[in-house]
Specification:
heterodimer, A: 786 residues, alpha+beta, Aldehyde Oxidoreductase, domain 3, Aldehyde Oxidoreductase, domain 4, 6-stranded mixed β-sheet, 21 helices, 23% strand, B: 156 residues, Ubiquitin-like (UB roll), DNA polymerase, domain 1, 5-stranded mixed β-sheet, 5 helices, 5 strands, binds FE2/S2 (inorganic) cluster
């Protein structure tokens, strides 16, 4: 399939010009007449406490204050900021046990930054000054930062619904084999193994650090309608959730998605929408804007799940991975949110990557007094990669087997069960990724060269692979609608709710629409982001927008195209099967002079009259619109291999990344620069998770680094040269052969850089991030290999 | 509240303003002049989202600069780099290299890039990376941003 006209082209992104000139509007840029400003009052001095007294009277009298709201002044209904409860059938939901344990404002503070009240004023400054006048007294409660502390029998219960503060464990009804995702008999596997490696890894609490802080505007008015402007990743799920929380019919809730200034999962579900909407309902008719400060955003929005990952692998001498047993225990923060989702998928990626003969995974999540954990790019996969890929390398060193060769031999492939059993892989280009990546980094030479080193600077190379997902099927609802409206001049509007987080999703969907319709790219306009206009979509998560949204676009455009051809067949008095549509003309195969312009058909569809002389319509009346309500038929995950070369300064502990090769099989790359961009950005985040990034709490549960100055990330000078190799293994299910590209970019770099450091020093780091301090400490304790 | 009268030129337009002495340039641009193209990312000088240009070439952080100290100065924001519908070579290069994802860092990045090239029209890759430190992008891994500055440098 090389005769694509638009697909695969490096066209400018749909929003690039607006963004580069500063004209793109983000939520904080919205200006409305009579706008008021809301401030969420958060408990900053305790991570766990009861509010014993809350006196808002002084704040209410402060200049510029319009209204103050305490817990009793807003809806008493609970909510769950995550969305998994919408995504599964009722009986499955019962088994998973998702709960609505969040309140708009609480009197039981469960983490530093929990919302206790709201202030609405005529300016942001007035609201902030009034917040200082609130008199609040707390009764401090014991702070639990680890699962061990939280599960003690005498621990304060976060909710009566989850005894023992165990928010989630894989439900036994779904996983009858001892509440574990399992096949075979892992114990029997270990009995047969020639080598067993075993370790407990510690994964850090990492923050998405999207550049646009969470900001919202809401207005309740317009005859009883709640309007909410938000840069959510999931406008239609928010639509549903807000309607439920405020007990309004969906027709009276209007969600307008503003430009997403970075997502990475941090806007998956609701963040402060409940608070801003509650404020708007208290000052009817007036728009209320709530802009989170950076340091507030850091604590008040969800993070990645940290935790302990116990892993045990058994191998035969020849490398056969005969048994895997893993247990993930997460410290999930103050509310339930994504407890069921991440704890399952983390094991799913473990199950989906390699051909374990016997397999067993358990995943638990405990409540702790930290910022709640939710979705962050990879949704469990990066945590899994850090542990799994390192432990495999430890074994391969002992078995004397090459790390690239082993991965080629034992990764799952076409026909094998995917990350969810029963849905098999339909395409896999991982061998090619490994071959090309190894060549590009000079794997064989470097492995030999770095085997014996002396001196204070040690180099190493590492590899890791991953597979991810393309959509949420089969676990969760996987549904997108698309309408394509054909204008009377034969241009088109694609209308859907698919979000573009900056990934290039809208550009790619525009390309797919243009390709399918056979229209030039500039004649296809993308219209999204308004719940009044577009139909259902589950939102931007699970790397699904291109894979599922793209298929919906194709189906809608084919529907429109079929209607055009039907009408052309009537006009040309020809059989529809004999027609060809090209360059906006329909002609009869073999007789190019027998043709009709698509524009004529579309024009007649809109402008049509019964002609007085004939009493007939001209052509066929009726505007052409194509529609699709698409449920994904399959899940074809992407694959990738990442190779990293590092130099570790053993005197300072500094790690310098010298080279990085990422080879990714994303199926057909619809918009190659967007795919490259996902890979490149993913590497920055993956390296960060493994080597620099972690939210740090003191023993009182107060965060010590909720600023960019104190939370270090890979900067422009830290980033190495990146060789970005795209392996476009056609997928039979994906739109034009495409698979996903969004999240996967982050996954393999986490394991690859850890393995490169291991290769350089001969020391494996089981606790992330691998900071210079940890490196120096380990060298001191374990010594360097000669 | 102490106020100062200042004259501030923004993208060629002169504004005579009374500003409280503690008000930042970023607040004046966004709140008082409704020029929202310059972004807030942290408010504490740590992310570069608020970068604007003084006298067309020197990058400063709007969130750390007191508006009162800018009396008589000429400020260029990313919107002011476009002249009569013609993009600045750095803006063109950002589009052509696909150096923009979510775009939230872009106004600051573009201004910073202009300042880098004003100082040295032919910077090495290392110099570009070094000078971009302080402007955070969480989307791109900086790869295409560095390439965009290199591409623009060929045109300036
Ligand atoms: S907003 Fe000025 S540096 Fe971040
Ligand atoms: S493009 Fe999103 S932060 Fe740079």
């Amino acid at each position: 399939m090389s005769d694509f006209k638009v697909i695969g082209q490096r066209v400018p992104k749909v929003d690039a010009r607006r963004k580069v000139t500063g004209h793109q509007e983000y939520a904080d840029d919205l200006r409305m007449p009579g706008m008021l400003y809301g401030k969420i009052v958060r408990c900053m001095e305790y991570a766990h406490a009861k509010v014993t007294k809350l006196d808002l009277s002084q704040a209410a009298k402060a200049p510029g204050v319009v209204k103050v709201l305490g817990p009793k002044d807003v809806t008493q209904k609970g909510y769950n900021s995550g969305v998994l409860d919408l995504m599964v059938p009722e009986p499955v939901g019962q088994m998973l046990g998702d709960i609505e344990d969040q309140l708009v404002f609480t009197d039981h503070v469960k983490f530093q930054g929990d919302a206790i009240a709201g202030i609405i004023a005529t300016s942001e400054e007035a609201a902030e000054r009034a917040a200082e006048l609130i008199q609040v007294e707390y009764e401090p409660l014991p702070v639990y930062l680890t699962a061990e502390e939280a599960k003690k029998p005498d621990a304060v219960q976060f909710t009566p619904l989850k005894p023992g503060n165990l928010a989630f464990a894989l439900p036994i009804q779904m996983f009858p084999d001892g509440a574990a995702y399992a096949w075979g008999d892992s114990e029997a596997g270990f009995a047969e193994a020639d080598l067993i490696v075993e370790e407990t890894f510690t994964l850090p609490k990492v923050k998405q650090c999207q550049m646009e802080p969470h900001t919202y505007v809401a207005r309740y008015g317009d005859g009883g309608r709640l309007n909410c402007w938000t840069s959510t990743q999931m406008p239609k799920c928010i639509h549903n959730k807000l309607a439920r929380l405020f007990e309004l019919p969906m027709s009276r809730v209007h969600v307008i998605q503003t430009t997403v200034g970075g997502g990475f999962g941090c806007r998956l579900g609701m963040i402060a929408e409940p608070q801003v909407c509650a404020m708007a309902m208290a000052v009817q008719g007036k728009p209320v804007k709530v802009s989170l400060l950076r340091e507030e955003d850091w604590l008040g929005s969800e993070s990645r799940h940290p935790g302990k990952y116990k892993m045990k692998i058994g191998f035969k001498k020849d490398g056969t991975p005969i048994s895997m047993d893993a247990h993930w225990i997460s410290e999930g923060g103050g509310y339930y949110t994504h407890a069921s989702g991440v704890q399952f998928t983390l094991g799913a990626w473990l199950a989906g990557t390699y051909k374990w003969t016997n397999f067993r995974f358990k995943g638990d999540r405990y409540y702790t007094n930290t910022t709640p954990c939710g979705a962050y790019r990879g949704y469990g996969n990066p945590q899994n990669n850090f542990a799994m890929e390192q432990l495999i390398d430890r074994a391969l060193n002992q078995l004397g087997i090459d790390k690239v060769e082993w991965r080629k031999k034992w990764h799952k492939t076409v026909g094998d069960d995917g990350w969810c059993m029963g849905v098999t892989y339909a395409s896999c280009g991982l061998d090619e990724c490994l071959d090309k990546g190894a060549k590009a980094i000079g794997w064989e030479d470097k492995i030999k060269k770095y085997a014996k080193q002396t001196g204070s600077k040690r180099r190493g190379v590492g590899v890791a692979v991953m597979t991810h997902t393309s959509g949420a099927m089969p676990m969760l609802l996987e549904h997108t609608t698309c309408t394509v409206k054909i204008n009377e001049d034969a241009t088109a509007e694609l209308i859907f709710s698919c979000s573009d987080l900056g990934t290039g999703a809208h550009t790619s969907l525009q390309q797919i629409g243009a390709e399918t319709l056979g229209f030039p790219l500039e004649d296809v306009h993308v219209r999204a982001q308004d719940s009044d206009i577009s139909g259902f979509d589950i939102g931007a998560h699970a790397s699904r927008t291109l894979y599922v949204g793209g298929s919906a676009v194709i189906e809608a455009c084919e529907d429109a195209k079929r209607q055009i051809l039907e009408r052309a067949a009537t006009a040309l008095e020809a059989n529809q099967d004999d027609l060809v549509m090209e360059n906006k003309k329909v002609f009869v195969k073999g007789s190019p002079d027998k043709s009709i312009d698509v524009a004529t058909i579309c024009y007649q569809g809109v402008y049509n009259w019964v002609m007085p002389d004939t009493g007939n319509w001209i052509g066929i009346p009726g505007q052409i619109q194509g529609y699709s309500s698409y449920f994904a038929k399959h899940n074809s995950p992407p694959w990738s291999a990442c190779f990293v070369e590092v130099e570790v300064d053993t005197e300072t502990g500094q790690v310098k990344v010298l080279d990085c090769v990422a080879a990714s099989d994303v199926g057909k790359a619809i918009h190659p620069p967007s795919v490259e961009g996902q890979v490149e950005g993913g590497i920055q985040q993956g390296f960060g998770q493994s080597c620099m990034e972690a939210m740090i709490y003191d023993e009182k549960g107060l965060c010590l680094n909720n600023t960019f100055a104190d939370y270090r990330m890979f900067g422009p000078s830290d980033m190495p040269k990146i060789t970005n190799i795209l392996v476009e293994e056609h997928d039979p299910f994906g739109p034009y052969g495409a698979k996903s590209a969004g999240e996967g970019g982050q996954v393999a770099p986490t394991g690859a850089i850890a393995n490169a450091i291991y290769n350089a020093l001969g020391i494996q780091f089981t606790e992330g991030p691998i900071t210079p301090e940890r490196i120096l400490k380990a060298i001191k304790e374990k010594g360097l290999q000669a | 509240m102490k106020k100062r009268s200042i004259s501030l030129t923004v993208n060629g337009t002169v504004h005579d303003l009374e500003v409280p002495v503690h008000r930042t340039l970023l607040q004046v641009l966004r709140e008082d002049l409704d020029q929202v193209e310059t972004k807030y990312g942290c408010g504490t000088g740590e992310c570069g989202a608020c970068t604007v240009l003084v006298d067309g070439e020197k990058a400063i952080l709007g969130c750390l600069t007191l508006a009162a100290s800018m009396d008589g100065k000429s400020i260029t924001t990313v919107a002011g780099l476009e002249k009569d519908g013609q993009l600045h070579p750095v803006q063109e290069a950002f589009i052509e290299e696909h150096a923009i994802q979510c775009g939230y860092c872009t106004p600051g990045m573009v201004c910073k890039s202009v300042s880098i090239l004003a100082k040295n029209p032919k910077p090495s890759e290392e110099e570009i990376r070094h000078n971009l430190e302080g402007n955070i992008c969480r989307c791109t891994g900086y790869v295409k941003i560095v390439q965009a500055v290199q591409r623009a440098s060929e045109r300036i």
